[in-house]
Amino acid sequence: MKTHPTQNAKQVTSQVSAIPPSTFIRTRHASSTGIDTTSIVRVKKAHTTCDKETGEVDIEWPENGRIDNGFIDKNIFASGATKHVYKLSIGSDHYVAKRFFEIGSDAEVSASENKDYLERELICLRTAGWFLAKFQTLAKERRIEFAGDVIVSEGFLVCEVGTPSPASSLLPLEEDAAVWLVEPRRTKSVQKFSGTMIHPHRNDKLGKTLAAFTHFVYEFSGEELVFADMQGSPMTIGGRDTLVIFDPMSHSHEADSGIGDHGNSSSERNDKGNNSDSSGEHDELDLSDE
């Protein structure tokens, strides 16, 4: 009697003890329409550093920096409340490129405004990575269990050289003005842990870790900064399930850290929301001195 292929597949599957969550995205080939969907771009990268001791971020645009060739899609890959995202390839590396289309004003976002707010976004991203490293080190020193497979996305800024691409939405005469925040291309799957002003309580280890991390940032920064809108993409990196944090938002005393910064009162309110559960008790993952 012949065994059906499906039955064989089920038998094989049952013998596999634990299959990790899949990050597979099937490549769908669109039929050619004869219309080019990408633009050739020449880009120059900004030089960004983050001080290991202080977390201070410095962004410089070298006048004679290296110019790389790439391709950027003309069509939007993804979009949020304030930024459009496009696919970008530089050499053999695949990225996403982000620009602002909304900053809370009625006018179109200018090239200089886009550059300014993207620089703030990168500062926030690099600062989050600095704080996360400090948080994880302290948790290990105090033997506190936490979700360790959490990282902050890499990112860098590039400026188009010459005539801006159609994706930039700039006029052809606005040469050397199209700036992008570039990050590695990831799955579109997103896990949200908090909003701009809302911080729902979570009992899982990952949720508790991110809530404790947010409170740690508030305390370690001398109550100058707190992160909000915490979200990440689940990825498999080095064979481990990892959450890659991206697009964090922050609140500061001066309300000048970027889009969505509501100032000092929001910093305090967001920290209180992250440091307590629905009954008002402190989160179990506490890094404060005994």
UniProtKB/TrEMBL annotation:
- Residue ranges annotated as compositionally biased, kind Basic and acidic residues, are 268-282
Q: Is Transferase set as a keyword in this record? A: yes
Matching entries from Gene3D superfamilies are given as: MHCK/EF2 kinase (3.20.200.10)
Q: Which Pfam families match?
A: Alpha_kinase (PF02816)
Q: InterPro entries, per this entry?
A: a-kinase_dom (IPR004166), Kinase-like_dom_sf (IPR011009)
GO molecular-function terms, A-Z = ATP binding; protein serine/threonine kinase activity
Q: Which organism is it from?
A: Psilocybe cyanescens
Q: Polar residues: which segments have biased composition?
A: 1-17
This protein's name: Alpha-type protein kinase domain-containing protein
Domain Alpha-type protein kinase stretches: 53-290
* Keyword Ribosomal protein included in the entry's annotation: no
Question: Mind listing the UniProt keywords for this protein, alphabetically?
Answer: Kinase, Serine/threonine-protein kinase, Transferase
Write the lineage as a comma-separated list.
Eukaryota, Fungi, Dikarya, Basidiomycota, Agaricomycotina
Region Disordered: what ranges?
1-21, 251-290
